[in-house]
Design a protein that fits this description.
- This protein is an alpha+beta fold.
- The protein folds into 2 domains: 25-201, Pnp Oxidase, Chain A (Roll); 203-235, no CATH class.
- The protein is built from 7 helices and 12 strands.
- The protein has helices at residues 13-16, 74-82, 95-100, 111-114, 181-184, 207-211, 223-226, and strands at residues 28-29, 31-36, 42-47, 50-55, 58-65, 84-89, 119-120, 129-130, 135-147, 156-168, 187-189, 195-197.
- The strands form 3 sheets. A 7-stranded antiparallel beta sheet has the order 3-2-6-9-10-5-4, with helices on one face. A 3-stranded antiparallel beta sheet has the order 1-11-12, with no helix packed on it. A two-stranded antiparallel sheet has the order 7-8.
- The longest helix has 9 residues, at 74-82.
- Bound molecules: flavin mononucleotide.
- Flavin mononucleotide binds at residues 30, 43, 45-49, 63-65, 67, 73-75, 99, 102, 104, 189.
């Protein structure tokens, strides 16, 4: 066992050559965040420190460190100033434009253009959507939590938004109403320069739900939706 107390050493590499922390919370889905600046410049960048929070109401958050100049990243500044952002699902097919959109560029650069992507207007917010992405979530900005780092440069901004509109390409919905994850092949980060995508799905019902079912626990939105999935009719 390699044991490592973070407060006692500055360098994971002394122990095993590579920083294990980067590759433990994996696979990490990638938030592909589109925003718009107060001057109307569209912006796009990937963030793998990303998760959903709560269901009713649904929220998502992404975390940004400071950029190489010690400044807050454009996605954070824009989300705060124009009070919105959009998450666009990154699939395996979109891995190259996602990567191009991560290039560090000045605030007046529109990464939709550098990555060769098409813009779609959103329904509820000003930030644009990536037309090539099969699933997008429009968010209203809620708050930013500043997490201090070991030095000012390494602090993180956790940007939280409330999901107000979800768009799903119907070609990626199964007859039972679930998203077709195997067809979508969402891309995820494994730390370092390694990635994976979903090529395998299995089902396991929550042990707690067998005795005490929670209405909607598996994602049903109404009694009618139970008809889509008769295997779940007991709950
Ligand atoms: C797959 C991937 C995941 C990334 N995840 C993060 C992240 O979680 N936090 C972060 O600060 N930067 C992350 N980056 C780097 C940002 O995308 C990059 O700094 C980008 O230029 C920020 O753009 P912005 O200033 O327009 O927001 C990631 C890059 C890639 C390729």
């Amino acid at each position: 066992m390699l044991d490592f107390e973070i407060s006692k050493s500055k360098d994971f590499s002394l122990l095993c050559g590579m920083d294990p922390f980067k590759s433990i919370a994996v696979p990490r889905p990638i938030a592909w965040i589109s925003t718009v600046s107060k001057d109307g410049i569209d912006n796009l960048a990937p963030y793998s420190q990303f998760t959903n929070v709560g269901f009713n109401e649904p929220h998502i958050l992404f975390a940004a460190q400071l950029n190489s100049k010690g400044k807050r990243k454009d996605s954070v500044i824009n989300a705060e100033e124009t009070r919105c952002f959009v998450h666009n699902m990154v699939t395996y097919d979109l891995r190259e434009p996602m990567n191009i959109s991560s290039l560090s560029s000045d605030p007046d650069v529109d990464e939709f253009e550098t990555a060769g992507l098409t813009k779609l207007d959103s329904f509820c917010v000003k930030a644009k959507r990536v037309a090539e992405s099969p699933i997008q979530m429009e968010c209203e900005y809620v708050t930013t939590v500043r997490l201090p780092g070991a030095n000012p440069m390494s602090s993180s901004d956790l940007v939280i938004g409330r999901v107000v509109c979800i768009h799903v390409d119907e070609n990626y919905v199964l007859p039972n109403g679930k998203l077709d994850i195997m067809k979508l092949r969402p891309l995820a980060r494994l730390g370092y320069a390694d990635y994976t995508s979903v090529t395998d799905v299995f089902e396991m019902r929550a042990a707690s739900m067998i005795k005490t079912p929670i209405p909607g626990g598996y994602g049903w939105m109404s009694p009618e939706s139970l008809k889509l999935d008769p295997t779940h009719k007991n709950l």
